[in-house]
Amino acid sequence: MTETAHNVDHAEIRKFEELASRWWDPESEFKTLHEINPLRLDYIEQAVSLQGKEVLDVGCGGGLLSEAMALRGAQVTGIDMGEMPLRVAELHTLETGVEVTYRRVPVEVLAAERPASFDVVTCMEMLEHVPEPAAVVAACARLVRPGGHVFFSTLNRNPKSYLMAVVGAEYILGMLPKGTHDYARFIRPAELGAWVRAAGMHLSDLTGMTYHPLTGEYSLAKGKLDVNYLATCRPDGDV
């Protein structure tokens, strides 16, 4: 199968490749990722201890979450289709000594190679950047072991999310580079839930992530799913 046949938007890949050298700069275009990374990590560990777990980070970029999970004791593999972000991620592990395995491989291909190989699969801030997000959800379901956990985070699609995540974050506050998000690709929780069920999993939790412009802080908030939200999924038959 050629790379063009994979579930990849090359324009999206180019966006992040152009910024790759600044991935680990907390004051760069990736400042928001640095600020929400502790929340993402805490959300995961509320559901499952990462100590000793085999973890796959899908769409890992420069490795912010991958390294954080490795520091919590997980054996982490990070995959992405951007060559430059992966190089940055690998160089950063040389600087920090944190052990993470990185691969440039589509998640669908890895699912065919290594089905049911991971205790935890994370796919954060990626689904809204691919042409066929349902295929990514299905691949993540194939990669997780029985009894495992799959975590997603993405953006809801409604007028409030457009105003806050696109107009506000990209054009007014300058928190993200202009053009980071395509509103048409935002995903309603009901849509994600349908893909999860079709993949043989169920949603065990949905939690929102909110931003407070006066304090400049992010927080997790049950029930507030109107902009950013995180999802915990379990294979069917697991509680």
TrEMBL record:
It holds the Pfam family Methyltransf_23. Keywords: Methyltransferase, S-adenosyl-L-methionine, Transferase, Ubiquinone, Ubiquinone biosynthesis. Pathway: Cofactor biosynthesis; ubiquinone biosynthesis. It catalyses: a 3-(all-trans-polyprenyl)benzene-1,2-diol + S-adenosyl-L-methionine = a 2-methoxy-6-(all-trans-polyprenyl)phenol + S-adenosyl-L-homocysteine + H(+); a 3-demethylubiquinol + S-adenosyl-L-methionine = a ubiquinol + S-adenosyl-L-homocysteine + H(+). Its EC number is 2.1.1.222, 2.1.1.64. GO terms for biological process: methylation. InterPro entries: SAM-dependent_MTases_sf, UbiG_MeTrfase. S-adenosyl-L-methionine binds at R40, G59, D80, M124. One of its GO terms (molecular function) is 3-demethylubiquinol 3-O-methyltransferase activity. CDD domains: AdoMet_MTases. O-methyltransferase that catalyzes the 2 O-methylation steps in the ubiquinone biosynthetic pathway. Belongs to the methyltransferase superfamily. UbiG/COQ3 family. This is Ubiquinone biosynthesis O-methyltransferase. The lineage of its organism: Bacteria, Pseudomonadati, Pseudomonadota, Gammaproteobacteria, Chromatiales. The gene is ubiG.
